[in-house]
């Protein structure tokens, strides 16, 4: 209520500690009270941060996928070395028969 009643800006941080939702309201109020140029800079910065996070998320998911593929290839190589049939290796690893045959050529 102190915030709504016009508490001085110096007290906003103290008030925000007591009420979690109040911090967001204060941030929004500060944003809305900025001039047009400051809002544009804020929006550009926010977009840049979101773009950066999106790029990091993409790279991370890409790395995980590549790691899983490499793990499947390692399993397939081990199975090939033990002389297991290609059809079984396809079933177990999910790799294509072509991929397994190429891997077999590399091993021999």
Give a short summary of the structure.
This protein has 108 residues and is mainly α. 79% of the residues lie in helices and 0% in strands.
What does this structure look like?
- 79% of the residues lie in helices and 0% in strands.
- The chain has five helices and no strands.
- It has helices spanning 12-18, 20-32, 36-81, 86-93, 97-107.
- The model has no long low-confidence stretch (mean pLDDT 82).
In total, how many beta strands? 0
What gross morphology would you assign? rod-shaped
User: Strand-and-helix sequence, N→C?
Assistant: HHHHH
Portion in beta strands: under 5%
CA radius of gyration? 28 Å
Oligomer: single chain
Question: Which parts are unreliable, with pLDDT below 50 for 5 consecutive residues or more?
Answer: none
Q: Tell me, rounded to a whole number, the average pLDDT.
A: 82
Structure annotation, total helices = 5
For the terminal residues, how far apart are their CA atoms?
Answer: 77 Å
Question: Major β-sheet, in short?
Answer: none
Topology:
Elements: H1 12-18, H2 20-32, H3 36-81, H4 86-93, H5 97-107
Helix pairs in contact: 1-2, 3-4, 3-5
Keyword list:
rod-shaped, 79% helix, 108 residues
């Amino acid at each position: 209520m102190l915030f709504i009643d016009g508490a001085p800006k110096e007290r906003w941080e103290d008030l925000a500690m007591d009420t979690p939702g109040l911090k967001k309201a204060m941030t929004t109020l500060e944003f809305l009270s900025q001039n047009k140029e400051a809002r544009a800079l804020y929006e550009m910065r926010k977009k840049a941060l979101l773009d950066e996070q999106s790029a990091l998320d993409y790279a991370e998911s890409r790395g995980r996928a590549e790691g899983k593929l490499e793990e499947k290839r390692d399993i397939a190589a081990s199975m090939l070395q033990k002389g297991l049939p290609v059809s079984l290796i396809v079933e177990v690893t999910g790799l294509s028969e072509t991929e397994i045959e190429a891997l077999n050529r590399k091993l021999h």
